[in-house]
Automatic annotation (TrEMBL):
Domain DUF305: from-to ranges: 96-238
Database matches in InterPro entries: DUF305_CopM-like (IPR005183), Ferritin-like (IPR012347)
Keyword Ribosomal protein: no
Keyword annotations: Membrane, Transmembrane, Transmembrane helix
PANTHER family: SLL0788 PROTEIN
Keyword Calcium belongs to the record: no
The protein's name: DUF305 domain-containing protein
């Protein structure tokens, strides 16, 4: 019986040894796998070196329909944009030409009077106003001349309107103003420039009433408003001195 028991114990020992060896072999294989694999992250997907094309908006359709309003009582019509002609130049009439051709010499005389203020005048507010007149009416003359040139006209296109240019000062009056100094000059300047500005306002109102050109209408409106404001400022400056 003792011999049988010894054989059983020896057999059980061999099975235990085999189980332990098998476990060690599995563990060693796992360690080797970990050491061989560089990391546990999945391999990144292959990307192309060429960037995806950017979709740009296309050019506007030159044939897109444009709605054209019809005459009163008529339906609107549509035309392709590439079949539309440029808008015609706003028409002008004799009143527009008369205003432009008269306002150029009218402004030029205002500049002559305004240039005298710096050396002959005494009131500092009037000197500031004179500078503003120079800064405004000089460029306006160029705009008026460009308007004539753009239409194939010149200063003589409106005829001789010198007798109708309200507010224009005589040569004798300009000589008296040039000879004056100090407070006397300031008083004469305000009186003459007020009369001169009022003449420009009257011509501007006439152009607004009778003229048809959009540009002339804007210029005439500017003359009426701005020179009316300057008349009040000149009177206030003289009263405060």
């Amino acid at each position: 019986m003792l011999g049988v028991r010894i054989r059983e114990l020896l057999g059980r020992s061999r099975r235990l040894v085999l189980i332990e060896l098998t476990a060690l072999a599995v563990l060693a294989a796992g360690v080797a796998l970990v050491i061989w694999w560089p990391d546990g992250d999945p391999e990144p997907a292959t990307t192309s070196s060429t960037p995806a094309p950017i979709e740009l908006p296309g050019l506007p359709d030159a044939t897109a329909p444009v709605l054209m309003p019809g005459r009163p009582g008529e339906p609107a019509a549509s035309l392709p944009a590439n079949e539309m002609s440029a808008m015609p130049r706003p028409p002008h009439n004799n009143a527009d030409v008369r205003f432009v051709t008269m306002m150029i010499p009218h402004h030029e005389q205002a500049l002559v009077m305004a240039r005298l203020v710096a050396e002959r005048g005494e009131n500092p507010q009037l000197k500031i106003l004179a500078d503003r007149i120079l800064a405004a009416q000089g460029p306006e003359i160029k705009v008026l001349e460009a308007w004539l040139t753009d239409r194939g006209l010149d200063r003589d296109s409106g005829g001789d309107h010198r007798h109708r240019m309200s507010g224009m000062q005589s040569a004798e009056a300009l000589n008296r103003l040039t000879a004056a100094r100090g407070a006397e000059f300031d008083k004469m300047f305000v009186a003459m420039m007020t009369d001169h500005h009022q003449g420009a306002i009257d011509m501007g109102k006439e152009a607004l009433t009778l003229g048809s050109d959009v540009t002339v209408n804007e210029l005439a409106g500017s003359v009426v408003v701005e020179q009316g404001v300057e008349i009040n400022r000149m009177r206030e400056a003289l009263a405060a001195s």
